[in-house]
Design goal:
By secondary structure, this protein is mainly beta. The protein has four helices and 25 strands. It has helices spanning 11-30, 58-61, 154-157, 266-269, and strands spanning 4-6, 40-52, 70-84, 89-98, 109-117, 124-132, 159-160, 162-163, 167-168, 187-188, 195-206, 210-217, 234-244, 247-256, 278-290, 293-306, 309-310, 313-314, 325-338, 346-357, 360-361, 368-369, 375-387, 390-399, 408-416. β15 and β16 form a beta hairpin.
Length: 417
């Protein structure tokens, strides 16, 4: 690959874009919707120039290795629909194209599809379908125009040695040459896409002060799949307390199943119930806003109870029973944003974060071992609102050994229309 290359969409992807997505975006922008005055259609697009270090990978720093050289691409396109059905019911959806994984534009998918019951007389709503996960602070900021940084924190974006078809797998995560959506590369602690599938409610416990989000879903927030291949179930909840207009405090919890059926684990599932394996998540987040500053901090603890896949097979005892691994990590970040009063529409921000993997106990020898590698990351960003719906930002990050091999530089222009 030449050092300076343009990431042109492949012929197949151009055909998909032309035949499926661009007409929809044109419809969003130009088509008069007579008789449906309340129907809302919107779209967004992200353009990005990026470069990254030699060890860059989507599953570690967000930039695929094949596109680590200076590269220009359309990295995401979205079409949004909001459709009132009656005075109390409405439907909303999001069709999304992105370059997650390989760096090439993926096929369109339905990222959001939610039916919501919202009776103005009640202080709660009920939703059904695929919707934004209640857990944590960052899933609520879905679009690039809503985010300060380009990357989500390590707890959402860094892939670990946890696989949804193998359990604990030392070769997953950063220890494989595969890419996301191509092979099994493990999972991030919380799915970076921020969506989940199930039924949920949002309850305004105290007007403008206390809110409770709760959902029963087909997997814990680690789950990346729209549909589960096993009868998984999980509970997810977040309590938000607003002590003042300057301070928002959040507490999140989740517990349930997440492993999936696959031909690879079919033989061991005959004698072992995969529904007994779980993930526990606990989170706390704080947002403080005063004068020209905004400070956001979040910490997330995760514990997995999973089988182990060591070498080329599942780790079993003499009775063909799977050995259980109890694995934990803790992620934390602090974001500081400053809006200079002399730079209207602009901001600068810094993020410091760390992902800590606690030592685990080997179920066979009872000795402790390190099941994944700790990682730290520093990120700086400068942003400017070119207009009400167009945001430009440039970000530089470094992580790992801080030797330049995993740096990223990303210049992003996002438009919402």
């Amino acid at each position: 690959m030449q050092q300076y290359s343009l990431n042109l969409i492949l012929t197949k992807e151009r055909m998909v874009l032309r035949k499926l997505f661009l007409p929809l975006l044109a419809f969003v922008c130009l088509h008069p919707i007579s008789g449906f005055s309340q129907l809302q259609l919107n779209g967004s697009i992200d353009f990005e120039i990026s470069s990254a270090g030699d060890d860059s990978r989507f599953i570690t720093n967000g930039v695929p290795n094949d596109f680590r050289k200076l590269n220009l691409a359309v990295t995401q396109l979205n079409a949004f629909l909001f459709a009132p059905i009656s005075d109390e019911f409405f439907f909303e959806s999001r069709i999304q194209l992105d370059t997650w994984g390989s760096g090439n534009l993926n096929l369109p998918r339905i990222a959001l599809a939610t039916l919501t019951w919202d009776n103005p007389a009640n202080d709660y709503i009920i939703k059904l379908g695929r919707f934004v996960s209640p857990f944590g602070f960052y899933p609520k900021r879905q679009l690039s125009t809503e985010r300060i940084f380009i990357n989500t924190p390590l707890g959402y974006s860094y892939f670990t040695n946890i696989s949804d078809i193998r359990g604990y797998w030392p070769q997953a995560g950063q220890n494989t040459n595969e890419e996301y959506q191509v092979g099994d590369v493990g999972l991030s602690t919380i799915y970076f896409g921020g969506y989940t599938t199930g039924v949920g409610t949002t309850w305004e416990v105290s007007a403008d002060k206390v809110f409770l989000d709760f959902a029963i879903t087909n997997g814990t927030p680690i789950t990346i799949r729209d549909r589960s291949t096993l009868p998984n179930i999980a509970g997810i909840a977040r309590l938000q307390i607003n002590p003042s207009i300057y301070w928002n405090q959040g507490f999140s919890v989740s517990y349930g199943n997440f492993l999936q059926a696959d031909p690879l684990n079919e033989s061991v599932r005959e004698d072992n119930n995969f529904q007994k394996y779980t993930q526990l998540l606990l989170g706390i987040d704080t947002k403080l806003a005063f004068t020209f500053f905004e400070i956001v901090g979040e910490a997330i603890y995760s514990n997995w109870n999973v089988p182990g896949f060591i070498g080329n097979s599942f780790d079993t005892d003499n009775n063909n029973s799977l050995r259980n691994y109890s694995l934990s990590n803790l992620s934390g970040n602090i974001d500081i944003k400053y809006e200079p009063p002399s730079f209207t529409g602009g901001f600068v921000a810094l993020r410091a974060e760390h992902l800590l993997f606690f030592d685990a106990e080997d179920p066979q020898t009872n000795s402790t071992f390190t099941w994944d590698e700790n990682v730290s990351r520093l990120t700086g960003v400068v942003g400017y609102k070119l207009s009400r719906n167009i945001l430009a930002k440039a970000a530089f990050s470094e992580q790992g050994n801080f030797d330049g091999n995993e740096y990223t530089f990303r210049l992003l222009i996002s438009a919402f229309f």
